[in-house]
Specification:
mainly alpha
């Protein structure tokens, strides 16, 4: 029974991260930390790295805190929460940084309705190079209007 609860918490955490990604993108990245995120919309540098990449460190730190809570403080749900955050981060990296932005030249030939919709939605979001006015959405739950 504990393993079912553990897996349920992991899956719930993964799905909750979709909301957290949308929320942090809309209200933090396009809000008070725009200074870190704006180079993701408008390249003002020649480096492969972006200031926007700093957000990875934040989510990695949150995940590590839950590992410590699990290992040092016997918080049973710490590990499945940490793994859920990690798996979402890995999925986000694969979809956003590799598939959409092609930071590594793989997954180039994926062409199906979902892939086209995700790319189209992201491209529309990136047309706005300003802090305000861009539509924000998650990675998994993209509005249907983008799937033509």
């Amino acid at each position: 029974m504990e393993i079912i609860l553990w897996i349920t918490v992991l899956i719930f955490t993964f799905l909750l991260m979709e909301f957290m990604a949308w929320f942090s993108h809309k209200y933090i990245m396009h809000g008070f930390l725009w200074v870190l995120h704006k180079d993701h919309h408008k390249k003002d540098h020649k480096s492969w790295f972006e200031r926007n990449d700093v957000f990875f460190i934040f989510y990695a730190a949150v995940s590590m805190i839950f590992v410590v809570l699990w290992s040092d403080f016997n918080f049973f749900f710490g590990l499945p929460i940490a793994i859920g955050i990690f798996l979402y981060g890995l999925t986000y990296f694969l979809v956003h940084d590799i598939f959409i932005h092609q930071r590594f030249k793989i997954f180039r030939n994926i062409d199906n309705k979902y892939a086209r919709g995700v790319r189209r939605a992201h491209k529309i979001h990136h047309k706005n190079i300003n802090k305000n006015g861009g539509e924000c959405f998650g990675m998994l739950f993209v509005p249907k209007k983008y799937f033509k």
